[in-house]
Model the fold of this input.
Amino acid sequence: MSRTLTASKFVGTISLGLLTGLSYTLSTTTVPPLLALPTATPAHSTFRHLRALTSRHQVLLSTLSASSLIMAYLLSPPRLRHPYLLWASLAVGLGWGGEAYASAKRRVSRKKSGRDEGIDAGRKSNRTVREGSWTEDEEWIADEGSVNGEVVREGLDGWRVKQGVKAGVWGVGWAIAVVGLWGDGA
Done:
């Protein structure tokens, strides 16, 4: 049982560290070259692909991290139930919870305005299934085939800031987990 708990703590901490690094790298290294592209169309298509992949990886890593840390807490004997496991899990939830709340809010507003499958069902939509940060890709498109560069830049800047905030929150959780593991002697 001791090895299972130790492995669970390490898996949760390592995946939280990877999650922090992913968000930090996106906000500092990946988005600035997208902003330097000569036209908005390649930036838009590249970003849509990047956003979908990022969302998938962040969901995987945050689920793995939170479930491992919570499992380690629940399976620990009462004298080894250290609250750092819950605090680190809370940081994972805070980093991802804001995005989940915003996504749910967008879905509700789309249903209220009739844009969710009803009115726009016949119109060609460039919406992706996994929305990262923007409400709709239709906001980017002025005419058929043209992309508004200013809106793309604003969206990329906003997404970069969100990734930076997530990296900060997840980084605090990672630091808590590392200090907790060090204190455990695991």
